[in-house]
Specification:
alpha/beta, single chain, 5 helices
Length: 197
């Protein structure tokens, strides 16, 4: 499926069912809607757009809007796809002789045909925002090591004993009180005759 992007895109980024097994982060770019189901996939897609930043400088500032103009008798194409487990993602700049450059960003089986800088930057910003939201959206039970998980389970089963304060009456007799030592006076050296040296 090819999605052609011309001009600044209308984008939306949302989090769905955060911190559950069915958590997802969605990015809508125009009529294309992408659901990503793990933080690694979100990070990979965002990194693909970010790495294409230098190539986007070769894109024209504006391009021909007729490439995405509605066609009589047909409905606007809408694309919805889901991604997980880091599918392939790659960006490639095309520079045909005598024609404007364009950028092709492939995420899984969807190809974004980016025709100008406005389209690139608005879409790249949406994926950057998705990466920010993904940090706190996906539940990660595997972040604890097996030993840490065992310690937490043991702590729930065997609570720590409650300590009671020691009785002060018996404690005073066992613990000696520190007494300050008498001050040491400095001695002035005298000669045998009593005069100062």
């Amino acid at each position: 499926m090819i999605v052609t992007l011309v001009g600044r895109q209308d984008t939306t980024v949302k989090v769905h069912r955060p911190n559950t097994d069915g958590a997802a982060v969605s990015v809508r770019v125009g009529a294309a809607l992408l659901y990503m189901h793990d933080s690694e996939t979100v990070a990979k897609f965002a990194r693909t757009w970010n790495d294409a930043g230098p190539a986007s400088l070769f894109l024209p500032r504006e391009t021909d809007l007729s490439k995405v103009a509605p066609i009589a008798g047909t409905s606007e194409p809408a694309v919805m796809f889901e991604a997980r487990d880091c599918p392939p993602a790659v960006a490639r700049l095309e520079r045909p002789v005598g024609r404007p450059s364009y950028l092709r960003v492939t995420l899984g089986r969807v190809l974004f045909d980016v025709r100008d800088r406005g389209a690139f930057h608005s879409t790249a910003m949406a994926f950057r925002r998705a990466e920010e939201l993904a940090v706190a959206s996906f539940y990660r039970p595997w972040t604890l090591t097996p030993r840490e998980q065992a310690e937490l389970a043991a702590a729930r089963i065997f609570p720590a004993p409650v300590r009671t304060p020691a009785r002060t009456r018996g404690a005073e007799s066992r613990i000696g009180t520190a007494r300050p030592s008498p001050p040491v006076q400095a001695r002035t050296p005298y000669s045998a005759g009593g005069a100062l040296q």
